[in-house]
Amino acid sequence: MIDLLFSNLNFLTISLIFFGVAFGILVSAIPGLTTTIGVVLLLPFSFYLDSASSLGMLMGVFVGGMAGGAIPAILINIPGNPASIVTNVNGYPLAQSGKGDFALGLAMISSTLGALIGLIILFLISPELSDFALKFGAVEQCALVLLGLSLVSALSEKSVMKGYISMCFGLMVATIGLDPITATPRYNFNTVTLQQGISFIPVMIGMFALPTIIESLIISKDFKFPTLDKNFKQCLVGVFDALKEILQSKFNIIRSSVIGSIIGAIPGTGSAIAATLSYQLTKKIEKSDNKDRFSSQGVISPEAANSSMSGGALIPMLTLGIPGDPVTAVMLGALTIHGLEPGPLMISSFPEAYYGLLGSFAVSVFFLVILTLIGIPFFLKAIRIKTKYLMPIIFVLCIIGSFALRNSMLDVWIMIIFGVIAFYMNRNGYPILPMILALILGKILEEQFRMSLIISLGDPFIFFKKPISLTLLIILGCFLSYIFVKFLKKVINQNKNV
Amino acid sequence: MKLTKKIVGALAGITLLFASVSTNSFAGSHAKYPSKPIEKTITFKAGGAADIAGRLSAKAAEKVLKQPISVVNRLGAGGSVGFDFVGKQKNNGYNIGWLSASILTTTILGKLPYDYKHWDFVCGVTVDATTIAVRADSPYKTLPELIAASKKNPGKIKIGHAGVGSFTYTTGAVLMKQQGAKVVFVPVGKRRTPALLSGEVDAISVHPPELMANVRAGKIRMLAVSTPVKMAAYPKVPTFKSLGMDLGFYQFRGVFVPKGTPKAVIKKLSDAYKTAAKDKALADAALNKGFGINFIPHNKFPKYVAKQDALLRKAMASIK
User: Fold this and answer.
1) Distance (Å, rounded) from C-alpha A453 to C-alpha A463?
2) Confidence at residue B6, expressed as pLDDT on a 0 to 100 scale
3) Mutate which: B86, B192, B198, vs A, most A CBs within 10 A
4) Which of A156, A373, A487, B240 sits between 20 and 30 A of B106, alpha carbons compared?
5) Are A432 and A154 spatial neighbours (Cβ–Cβ below 8 Å)?
6) How confident is the model at residue A430 (pLDDT cuts 50, 70, 90)?
């Protein structure tokens, strides 16, 4: 078994994996371009390469892509791809306080460890985990999504109320497009293009990037990103500090990676959900008075989760032939082009391809460490480009990225419109993340809730009859009553004071 | 206020920029067609069976046309976004699209404000079956058994599908309606195979390519397929026709172009795809993924589409 892991490797395969990882980091580090766009761009080359090389390359993009998004999130407050949707919340302030190297070190090391844990889970218990993930049917997904939405307060830095208002806005936007059950068009102004609904990726690109672009180009003329005047050696010290910090956060790494792998293995989820859920939980669990310590936990958690998600997402693809996320959906196509058939028979019919894929995953993780650690000083240098040159480039890339997703001009307009909305939300203290999370989860919630009721023939108690959903709902109940009690105490105290 | 003005000004500038870009166009003559690369819109997700058929046939057709065909996936709203897009392009033969019977279902459902006469049709290339499939441990061994069981216990058997309006739903629903079966249809969307495997639904109505891996592993059993002839990839599965349940409409896939594309260009494209339909890579993919190759040339395809439209229109009205 072990010997099969690396039997496919030759010079060409290894160099293509290296290229894949570098390309993945680059594509996802560019705001606007996502990992999915990266693999779709490389898919045509699969026709001309042998299966081991082409899959190794795509695997590299997948692994590199999950890590690269953290770079712009930390350095310029714009997540490079959906996977890093929460990394900037704590990462950017760290960079602002002159610890850019430390924050990048945290993100890159936790990404690597996350990917490693994901790989181990994939190698050891993929059939078991895929059985468990299969249990997440309509009812269970509904309960999981409700839990995710109720934790929205963890994403609201200042005002919890404003966080929930932002969430409601996201839920409203999620209803645009074809009704998921009866396919009735809703709020589409009788246009064909709006029938597809509002996809969260252009919204995410616009809401994160445009406010920064507007801020730096139109509002404040002397806007500058936090730069570091450190040489290579000094940066290494920062990275070493990060390593020390991570060694003290083993529990966070393991918890976030396991959550990431499980979420990845549930078909219909994705890296954004994995990162956000584990971040929310980390924030609720790791109650630390030391603010600095929490900021580093807030970077470690989403980055470990999104990288381990890639291992999780491969599980249903390899064991059931069902992709766990958009990137694995493209990889499934690449496997098919080479006559391989991912599914229950994959391990027995194509052991070389199966273990070869795991082997290229391992090699990708190895290259990820090297490339990111060597890269940190260069990433820090890249933002020394003058804002007036950097921002227009990012704006053009945001347009390209929004367009490339579905080759639709509508997505470009959505990106711009929601970017402007986000600019005003920021100014008035409304957090953006709850809105984006609600947009992602709202669609799943509506679809799975109505489907649950169809399956139960209209019986609403089905949510309490299934063990997994009951457990999730009990956690939800405890959490909500905790908030309520806290609220009551506050009201009583206020009355006493009066 | 000043700030708002600045932002509005910036947006107006961007609008003008886009407007000037989109009016830019190329003029071309079709005498030496094709003299530049062709863009092929695929309305299905990159990597899926329909996309692979579209890409492999384009790759084989390239060799005949001696010009590259670049594939662009334009997704959304069950294909209507891509169908609409191709219809709006220049009718010079450099914008072609990869269609399925969804081009009919989306127009019949009114998702697009016109009907199939909005486009010109080049040729049919492949055909996908729709299958009713159950888990391997299901008590239903044949399609008639499943239908009979549903009549005994109305509302007990649940059939999962991609969504109302999808071709696979239409096939399953019309079949069950014609046979008088009393089943509940559940729009499980993308989670079709997981929903069947986990037992959320008892059967699913889908295209075989998404099931082949689990069928070969003996986890899922196909009860019957909708194509008129048995398919090479799964010769043992009976057809609806052999069970006396033929519906007459099929999931054909092929090439279409904007209305008014010159006849000579359509013929050239059709001839190129005729060669492509014999391509070995396409045949291998068909056998592996479980779709069929069924070439229909340019002089027969428009009539075929018109006939399918009439049949589908009638069938879909019956399940409304």
Assistant:
1) 9
2) 67
3) B198
4) B240
5) no
6) very high
Percent of chain A with pLDDT over 90: 28
- How confident is the model at residue B27, as a pLDDT? 42
Cβ separation A330–B47 shorter than 8 A: yes
Buried b (16+ CB within 10 A) or exposed e, A222-250: eeebbebebeeeebbebbebbeebbeebe
Mean pLDDT of B252-267: 91
For residues B205-231, one letter each, b for 16 or more C-beta atoms within 10 angstroms of the residue's C-beta and e for the rest, the string is: bbbbbbbbbbbbbebbbbbbbbbbebb
Between A151-155, A252-256, B17-21, B312-316, the lowest mean confidence (pLDDT) is in B17-21
The whole-angstrom distance between A168's CA and the closest CA on chain B is 24
Q: A218 vs B155: CB contact, 8 Å cut-off?
A: no
Min Cα distance A361 → chain B (Å) is 20
Q: How many residues does the structure list for chain B?
A: 320
Question: Average pLDDT for residues A213-233, to the nearest whole number?
Answer: 76
Contacts of A178 in chain B (CB under 8 A): 77-78, 111
Residue B205, phi then psi, degrees to nearest 5: -110, 105
pLDDT at B67 over 60: yes
What's the pTM?
0.81
Average pLDDT along chain A: 86
Question: If you average pLDDT over residues B216-228, what whole number do you get?
Answer: 89
Q: If we measure between CA atoms, which residue out of B125, B106, B123, B124 comes closest to residue B115?
A: B106
Best residue of A217, A407, A459 to probe chain B, by most B CBs closer than 10 Å:
A407
Interface contact flag, B212 A341, Cβ < 8 Å: yes
Mean confidence (pLDDT) of chain B: 86
> Strands B131-135 and B69-73: what pairing?
unpaired
The residue in chain A having the minimum alpha-carbon distance to the alpha carbon of residue B2 is A219
Q: How many CA atoms lie within 13 A of A138 on its CB side?
A: 27
With an 8 Å Cβ cutoff, are A343 and B213 in contact?
yes
**Pick from A151, A32, A68: which is nearest to A378 by CA?**
A68
Give yes or no for residue A289 having a pLDDT over 80.
Answer: no
Candidates A451, A456, A457, A459, partner chain B, best to mutate (most B CBs within 10 A): A451
Residue with tokens 């830019």: B24
Contact B213 A178 (CB under 8 A): no
Domains of chain B: 34-128+250-318 (3.40.190.150), 131-225 (3.40.190.10)
pLDDT at A169: 95
Distance (Å) from the C-alpha of residue B3 to the closest C-alpha of chain A?
8
- Is A330 at the interface with chain B, CB within 8 A? yes
SS (H, E, C) A51-83: HHHHHHHHHHHHHHHHHHCHHHHHHHCCCCCHH
What number of helices (H) and strands (E) belong to chain B? 11, 11
Q: Which residues contact A255 (CB under 8 A, 6 or more apart)?
A: A278, A281, A282, A285
Establish if A191 touches chain B: CB-CB under 8 angstroms: no
User: How many other C-beta atoms lie within 10 A of the C-beta of residue A38?
Assistant: 28
What value, to the nearest 5°, has the Cα angle with vertex B130 and ends B129 and B131? 110
Pairwise CB contact (< 8 Å): A138 & B73: no
**Do A343 and B217 count as a contact with CB atoms less than 8 A apart?**
yes
Tell me which amino acid residue A341 is: E
Residues B52-69, mean pLDDT to the nearest whole number? 90
Cα separation, A68 vs A239, in Å, equals: 16
Q: Where are the domains of chain A?
A: 2-465, 466-498
Q: How far is A300 from chain B (nearest CA, A)?
A: 31
Contacts of A187 in chain B (CB under 8 A): none
A181 interface with B at CB cutoff 8 Å: yes
* β-sheet bridge partners, residue B256: B97, B121
Per-residue pLDDT at A435: 93
Who among B51, B52, B77 is closest to A196 (CB)? Answer: B77
pLDDT above 60 (res A123)? yes
